Amino acid sequence: MFQLIIIPILVGLITQAIKLMADGIPNNFGWRHLINDYGGMPSAHTAYASALTTVVALREGLDSAAFAVSLILMIIIIRDAIGFRREIGRNAVLTNKIAKEIFKNKKVEYLQERVGHTLPQILVGLAIGCGLSAVLFFLLI
Questions:
Q1: Number of domains observed in the structure of the chain
Q2: SS3 sequence, 4-47?
Q3: In this predicted model, what pLDDT tens digit does every residue of 71-126 receive, in sequence order?
Q4: In which domain, by residue range, is 23 found?
């Protein structure tokens, strides 16, 4: 049972760590960035959701109700990562432009603009999520 919880969490954290290292931004690797950063290559949300779906498939089978539920939730998460969150990022760009104009001489905390994912980021997250969770599943049996 612990595999259904531990493996997706590990895969999500590992994928987020890969993303932070790949960004190449100095001092980027910290707890705040590990938990709060959105967007970028690869998609940790997709890796996390696909890891859960993969572990459920391996443990319960493809014809189980648990697999069906996890697959549908994975599709929703991926759809939101691409579409809905991209729109949030576009809104953040516009909001930041307005804030820069209104608060020219004041220190303002701007919104994070990189929120959504591209298709390649999703596909790499999917590959990492499925592959790494399968490896961890068979190592932890």
A1: 1
A2: HHHHHHHHHHHHHHHHHHHHCCCCCCCHHHHHHCCCCCCCHHHH
A3: 999 999 999 888 877 777 788 888 888 888 888 877 888 777 766 778 899 999 99
A4: 2-82+118-139
Give the separation between CA 25 and CA 16, rounded to whole angstroms.
14
- What DSSP string describes 102-113? HTTTS--PPPP-
- Structural domain includes residue 101: no
Report if residue 54 sits inside a domain: yes
Q: Return contacts of 14-20, CB within 8 angstroms, 24+ apart.
A: 14/128, 14/132, 15/42, 15/43, 15/44, 15/47, 15/48, 15/125, 15/128, 15/129, 15/132, 16/44, 18/42, 18/128, 19/44
Predicted TM-score (pTM) of this structure: 0.78
Q: Which of 118, 96, 110 is nearest to 40 (CA)?
A: 118
Domain-located, residue 51: yes
Do the domain assignments include residue 109? no
